[in-house]
User: Which sequence fits this backbone?
């Protein structure tokens, strides 16, 4: 079995090859006119970590590691900044111990050790955070608790379509365990390969569905969480009105209140009926209007993604002036032809165009063999989505500054926000990189507003990437705040988004959250610095 | 303008007439064989309240009342127990002062007065609570804050389909303000006439939609709440993943954390297309199966209500062995004929029967003139729903013990729960009333389980109603807990459900909620005894 890379997205066997670097050098030359030598990615021999400041307690030593590769691999998430630092072997403050509990009892023992000895404990799922959610804060000692050995689907309830699942399971292993039973969780964030159920819940992950049930929140039936003050477990209920939802206090708590160990999740029969369409619009405003009208008609398509002209060009081969609106329906039980035709009619009324034969309807096709939604412009975009994190690995070391940021906003303020964010990004790219590229898509769409997702890229000097990145990120995040958006729609807050999150959340809520943390984690050992200060 | 009754559901001009009492006496004779004289409802002259223990502070005196009728009318909600006590003029612990702030500034002044003087403050919307949510606890002094003067729709955002609405507005006034703009909130709990937006949010009210968006929770875009520690206001966002949702901490907080003053709510275009069907099944198990399969097909019908044979007989005239499954779709934009045909096909596959011509499809009919879903069995049931609270007024004083209780449970445990709850109810009715009637319907249906709603009735001795009621309620609630359900799906916890809620919620969550309350309401003045003890 291959190891995870300590700096890049994915496992070591999927790291950039010389051919990848050559292709990237050609792309950079084409786009920026620069001729650059391929970078040399780091190896274990380049690691020179501070020795662990603590040793594992004898009670937990058996399932703990102090190996350098392990500690480096768990030091950061996989944001642009993380990958640059990892590539540079810049690991000044690595975790001291990585614990791999295989049972909840082992986890409790680790937490007890940390709590009694005032050791910082960082819950770690797949490590795909892009907001420094797993990055050790300054502290005397840090244990990162890797939950990936808690990776089993424990129970499946066919009647209620729910499953009890351990929190450490990563996306592919989760789906592989559900598939033989005919089920799927259908939660496919871009981080799917290296993110865990517990991580999705702790970060309010955004998933497969572009409308209606956009976040993991809606698929949580009950949660079990170990806290320094005891076990928190909610009842399995399809719905409830008994006080504020206990689950909703955990969902989004990003590891500061406890460690999620398992959850009953609402699962689904695997879709057999699919229908999709890629509707082309003259420009983004018209496509956004189409998305709004479809969302407000409340058909709840599984897919409703708007690509601005830049993204539509890059990922779907359109002409650079046209925007693309991808609409898709799916069902395990019912044909979706009527739905797609109604949605296309709305899109056409809004100025969109699509040939009748480009509407793909696959009724009762086999899931695995189904090609609906996998063809043409729609299919091109889907492949890009899955491969993007790998492709970005190859940009690291060339001086490229590339990142994404996402938010949400109500429709009436969206055009102004878009203008503000784009101009903040372009101005900052100009200052730091002498220019660059900005594009936008909607990842999720609500009746009352879109969740826009911006991608930017520029070419800085090798060694100057982090400074340029910080300036661009600051400018864009400030614009999002000024425009009235959220600093994150589904990437979470972590440590990176704190300055803007602190402006966004109500002050009395921050006081309340601090009070909750003191109640559950009186020594403040759990993931300090995330979401709130003590 | 007519006043609210101090004991009954509704205004004084809708109280039982002599003819209503005669009809009720005949019904009782028919059902129980008893011949009873009509009761004599109380009047203001029968009130003999403890004098107020405090006087309004001069800063608030102008908008406060210490009138006996006012204080009696605000003493209780409108549960069975409340109405019996009100009818008996049993008001040993009335609130001392009723405050009617017209502005948020006035509300803040009242809260400051209460907080500085350690006076208990009880937020009060429409007063329709059935869980003693507004009933003063033992205290030195109590001010009930009636919010119904905060009754305006302040802003409407056509693009995002949202409105900023003051929390004290009651259902009909809210809809009347939205209607001229072509919108509706479409939140129609049975308490609609006398419940407020703020009350719906504070109690996680269950609304119009039987599937998908069952609770008010999903229609809240942002909330503004005044707390003793300052104003809590969240950003307007269509969706967010920034930490635990601040709104979800308020939603369901039942007045213990602050007073909700306004909210941005997601509103909707008024439906023009409707389709509905009443499908008949041999017995409840088959009808429940039909409901499950329709919910799991995720068409998200607006209406999906199962009536057991007893309810189907009482409200829809069926034969007493058949159960009724009501399915309805509605849309402002799209015809619903395909949807209803698909749902009926699923219901028929599950053993249901309906004549083809009984499927009502009203495409593009005017809202007001539309009769879809208002005819036959469906229409009978709808009228019963709206009038039920008034009809129950006439039972008070005859010795009738009648109440409803509601819960939710996952499908695989539902048959066992139903058996346990019914037998607990029947046994307790036997002990206390020598027998009685039990029936059940589903008010809301989820892919993973139903929200069953039980109605029971028996005849006790006049004067013995409360004792009988307490024994029946205890037995049924114990059964719900043992079966694994929630003590409330949408009636809230208040004070009445506390013993069972305390078993249900995770202990660490209760600690967390107490910590939140201490943070926001350090003197513990807000609605003490509800949800948690200090």
Assistant:
């Amino acid at each position: 079995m291959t190891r995870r890379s300590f700096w890049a997205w994915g496992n070591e066997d999927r790291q950039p090859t010389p051919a990848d670097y050559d292709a990237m050098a050609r792309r950079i030359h084409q786009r920026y006119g620069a001729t650059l030598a391929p970078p040399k990615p780091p190896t274990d021999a380049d690691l020179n970590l501070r020795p662990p400041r603590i040793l594992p307690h004898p009670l937990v030593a058996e399932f703990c590691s102090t190996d350098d590769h392990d500690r480096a691999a768990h030091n950061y998430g996989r944001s642009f900044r993380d990958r640059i630092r990892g590539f540079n072997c810049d690991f000044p403050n690595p975790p001291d111990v990585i614990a791999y509990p295989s049972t909840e009892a082992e986890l409790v023992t680790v937490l007890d050790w940390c709590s009694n000895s005032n050791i910082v404990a960082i819950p770690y799922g797949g490590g795909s955070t892009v907001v420094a959610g797993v990055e050790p804060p300054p502290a005397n000692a840090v244990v990162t608790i890797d939950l990936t050995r808690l990776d089993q689907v424990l129970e499946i309830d066919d009647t209620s379509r729910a499953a009890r699942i351990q929190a450490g399971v990563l996306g592919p292993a989760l789906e592989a365990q559900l598939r033989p039973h005919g089920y799927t969780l259908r939660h496919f964030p871009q981080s799917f390969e290296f993110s865990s159920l517990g991580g999705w819940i702790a970060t309010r992950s955004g998933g497969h569905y572009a409308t209606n049930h956009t976040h993991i929140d809606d698929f949580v039936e009950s949660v079990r969480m170990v806290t320094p003050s005891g076990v928190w477990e909610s009842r399995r209920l399809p719905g409830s009105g008994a006080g504020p939802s206990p689950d909703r206090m955990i969902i989004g708590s990003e590891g500061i209140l406890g460690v999620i160990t398992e959850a009953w999740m609402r699962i689904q029969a695997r879709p057999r009926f699919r229908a999709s369409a890629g509707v082309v619009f003259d420009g983004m405003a018209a496509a956004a209007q189409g998305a709004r009208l479809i969302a407000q008609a409340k058909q709840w398509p599984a897919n409703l993604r708007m690509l601005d002209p830049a993204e539509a060009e890059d990922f779907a081969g359109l002409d650079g002036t046209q925007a693309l609106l991808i609409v898709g329906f799916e069902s395990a039980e019912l044909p979706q032809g009527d739905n797609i035709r109604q949605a296309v009619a709305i899109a056409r009324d809004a100025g969109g165009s699509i040939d009748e034969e480009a509407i793909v309807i696959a009724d009762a096709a086999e899931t695995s063999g189904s090609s609906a939604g996998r063809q043409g412009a729609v299919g091109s975009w889907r492949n890009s989505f899955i491969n993007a994190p790998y492709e970005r690995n190859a940009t690291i070391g060339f001086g490229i500054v590339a990142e994404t940021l996402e938010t949400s906003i109500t429709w009436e303020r969206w055009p102004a926000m878009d203008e503000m964010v784009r101009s903040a990004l372009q101005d900052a790219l100009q200052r730091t990189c002498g220019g660059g590229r900005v594009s936008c898509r909607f990842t999720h769409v609500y009746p009352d507003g879109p969740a826009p997702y911006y991608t930017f890229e520029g070419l800085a000097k090798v060694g100057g990437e982090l400074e340029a990145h910080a300036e661009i990120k600051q400018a864009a995040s400030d614009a999002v705040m000024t425009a009235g958006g959220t600093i994150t729609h589904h990437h979470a807050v972590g440590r990176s988004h704190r300055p803007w999150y602190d402006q966004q959340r109500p002050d009395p809520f921050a006081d309340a959250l601090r009070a909750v943390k003191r109640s559950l984690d009186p020594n403040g050992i759990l993931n300090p610095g995330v979401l709130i200060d003590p």
Remarks:
- The first strand of chain B starts at residue 64 and ends at 65.
- The radius of gyration of chain B is 23 Å.
